Amino acid sequence: MKIVITGASGFVGQNLQNYLSAHASYDIITVGRSPQPNTPNYLSFAELLQTNDASADAIVHLAGKAHDLRNVSDPSEYFKVNYELTKQLFDKFLLSSAGKFIYVSSVKAVADLPQGTLTEDTVPAPKTAYGQSKLKAEEYLRAQTLPGNKQLYILRPCMIHGPGNKGNLNLLASVVKKNIPYPFGAFENQRSFLSIDNLCYIIQEILAKNIPSGTYNVADDQSLSTNELIALISQSFQKHTKIWNINKSMVRFIANVGDKLGLPVNNEMLQKLTTDYVVSNKKLLSVLDKPLPLSSTEGLLKTLRSIH
User: Which intervals hold domain NAD-dependent epimerase/dehydratase (predicted)?
Assistant: First the structure.
């Protein structure tokens, strides 16, 4: 099976290539931004869009502009990359002989902070340019007439983690590793996570089997509270769990002061660590008809052990 993977040099792309190579026989064509002459099985986006070679069986579109947590990116860049590029690639797919198009979107295309559990029926209302650009791409894909011999999959992953990924999980782990107590234990929340192993498994299942076209949320089976996550991190480092249950009103006061003085402890940090973001994967599991390889805890522990 010949697979085209865009964004192949990124965290998900590299893991997906390794996973597919280890689990089945795939002929993988990687796609990136710049031309790389004499690089086997590689095309730039310009070369891919211009080529007449339509022999691929499937396209996995991972490339995109990631969410800028510092909020310094030009909003138009999100739409140029996440929407316009996706539109061009999907138009190319419709004219090709490829049968499957997998677009990796994001739960942020639906909500920055969902009210209750996020499902595929949740009415999208993204607030950021990142989420809005992902949603616009989704809407374009779903609006096109899909020939009977083609299938479209829109995947909405929540926070992806895995060995080698440098994200918020690593920052939290570094705090625990330094024996700094977690001060927000009085807040009870639930958040969903997604192991890179589970994501790669899901993509391979879609490639290999006749899964119905559709939009699917992607998350591990169970959500965890930040307090539970701190306990897991402590376990992975073989340290005693240190959680302080400081009064919520006092914490919010400190966060407000942090906003005014530009301190690390501020409302943005408090929101990330203490609010709910639960994603339902029931629709996806119903079509896969089997459990995911790793539980939430197993996936997180695998990632955390790689940080040592």
Answer: 3-219
Residue with tokens 């490829």: 98
CATH of the domain at 53: 3.40.50.720
What range defines the domain where residue 30 resides? Answer: 2-157
Supply the pTM of this predicted model. 0.93
For the chain, how many structural domains are there in total? 1
Identify whether 280 is part of a domain. Answer: no
Considering the domain boundaries, does residue 130 fall inside one?
A: yes
Assess if residue 272 is contained within a domain: no
The string of pLDDT tens digits covering residues 221-274 is: 999 999 999 999 999 999 999 999 999 999 999 999 999 999 888 998 899 899
Count of CA atoms in the C-beta half-sphere (13 A) of 14: 7
Structure confidence by residue, pLDDT tens digits, 62-110: 999 886 555 556 889 999 999 999 999 999 999 998 999 999 999 999 9
The verdict on residue 278 lying in a domain is no
